[in-house]
Amino acid sequence: MSTLLAGIDFEAPSDEVARLLIGVTVLVDGVGGRIVETEAYDREDPASHAFSGPTARNASMFGPPAHTYVYRSYGIHWCLNFVCREAGHGAGVLIRAIEPLVGLDVMRARRGLEAATLLGSGPGRLCQALAITREHNAMSLAAPPFELVAREGDVDIVAGPRIGITKAMDVPWRFGLRGSPHLSKPFKVTKPA
DNA sequence: CATAGGATTCCCT
DNA sequence: GGGAATCCTATGA
């Protein structure tokens, strides 16, 4: 069994999907850009929302793969995840940063004048730029308003520890496009992942 | 450039 | 009641 989308099998382990997503273009209502930073979370992962089993908040993480899991962060921001593994497993990939490509003016307007340059460099920022809210939770990535475009050619990927967590801080499940100016934070490692 | 503190909602203990 | 997969602004070096 597999759930293929943009050349990626979303039933694969989350760290593999997180790696494959680097370079993939994501559009929401025709606005978006290229994914340059992701983080993997899994069921047996103390830093994951899925660690303590299904709850009202993380229910979609236990739903079918290649669907979204959108949650409220720090009471202010929205964060976008892509569900992976088989339905019921409870794994996902946090989309942490995109390189803005399509609909720049729309994204700038959504982000506001003060921060118009940081359109997608951070999970909260990219959700604001793409107008992601709770309404986008548990939606299929294979149907509108979502659209994934497979990456072309090879990408140079770096890995490192995940950001903003207090558990399992030694697990190197943050992935990024090497040298991208659109990363939320730089990677310390400069060798191939 | 680095650090610090506040904003604000929802879930879990 | 506490803490969270964050972001923005202000302040001081």
UniProtKB/TrEMBL annotation:
Q: Which InterPro entries has this protein been placed in? A: Formyl_transferase-like_C_sf, MPG, MPG_sf
In its UniProt record, a GO molecular function of this protein is:
hydrolase activity, acting on glycosyl bonds
Q: Does the keyword DNA repair apply?
A: yes
Keywords, ordered alphabetically: DNA damage, DNA repair, Glycosidase, Hydrolase
Q: What Gene3D superfamilies does UniProt report for this protein, alphabetically?
A: Methylpurine-DNA glycosylase (MPG)
The top EC class, named as a word, is hydrolase
Q: Has UniProt tagged this entry with the keyword DNA damage?
A: yes
Q: Which SUPFAM superfamilies match?
A: FMT C-terminal domain-like
Q: What is its EC number?
A: 3.2.2.-
Identify its protein family: Belongs to the DNA glycosylase MPG family.
Protein name, please?
A: Putative 3-methyladenine DNA glycosylase
Native source species: Pseudoduganella plicata
